[in-house]
């Protein structure tokens, strides 16, 4: 049996990464739509509060201060709790929000200013849930594609037919929940970024509204603030996809008892110096940083 040349494996690796990149772009486009919708919803809320006080040059500051200090109605408070119950599906997040807004400090006597802050908070929580759902789907598909395509490529490259274990949901969940960087998993990183965006957004919008800026300027700056969050989210997605693709590849090697592998980097303008320095080097599978292991009493995947 003739051994396949190195460029065969490079080609197969490149084809797989291109396939994964197409799926990643589809996920990112869905995320962009979610961020755009969240921006529209927040802008709508701002406009509904300030529209009667808007001027071409900005907001009437005296009227604005009176408006922001005006107490909300009990009906608003009931609607707020209903919005949380109907739109937040993550039980832990829902409990936190309900506990926060059921507290005495957040009774129906809250001001319009506090109401705006709350609506931003809830809108961003909805956004984080959407981000988690669509990215998890992408990561699961990445793991499956990476695992099965690597096994297929090895079978085709060696000319050998052999049996192998199917990758099951428990193994996939173990990989998804791994705290592989900064002691957090992908879901925690989404919520951490979302919290940072929320804090930043509430601070900046407060400064914008209290300064008397026009609604047009506030809306424009809101879009810019949201783009900061979107950039962080898309960067996270690309990093996570690469991570899960690499983990799936190693899982395939372990399944087939492959002892060594060659690192192939995509040498282009965005390749980091560290990856470029490792290009074409050979490593032992057993010496790589281990993933979390299934409990010893668990059935084999």
Commentary on this structure:
There is one protein chain. By secondary structure, this protein is mainly α. The chain has a domain of 186 residues. It contains nine helices and four strands. The strands form two sheets. The protein has a two-stranded antiparallel sheet with strand order 1-2. A two-stranded antiparallel ribbon has the order 3-4. Strand 1 and strand 2 form a beta hairpin. It is elongated. The protein starts with 5 loop residues before the first helix and ends in a 17-residue tail after the last strand. 23% of the residues are buried. The C terminus is likely disordered.
What is the CA-atom radius of gyration, in angstroms? 25 Å
Give me the number of helical elements: 9
Content of β-strand? under 5%
Q: First CA to last CA: what distance?
A: 31 Å
Structural classification? mainly alpha
Percent range of helical residues: 55-70%
What sequence of helices (H) and strands (E) makes up the elements?
HEEHHHHHHHEHE
Main sheet, how many strands, which sense, barrel? 2 strands, antiparallel
Give a count of the beta strands, DSSP E runs of length 2 or more: 4
Nearest-integer average pLDDT: 80
Q: Unreliable stretches, pLDDT < 50, 5 or more residues?
A: 294-301
Strand order of the largest sheet: 1-2
Shape: elongated
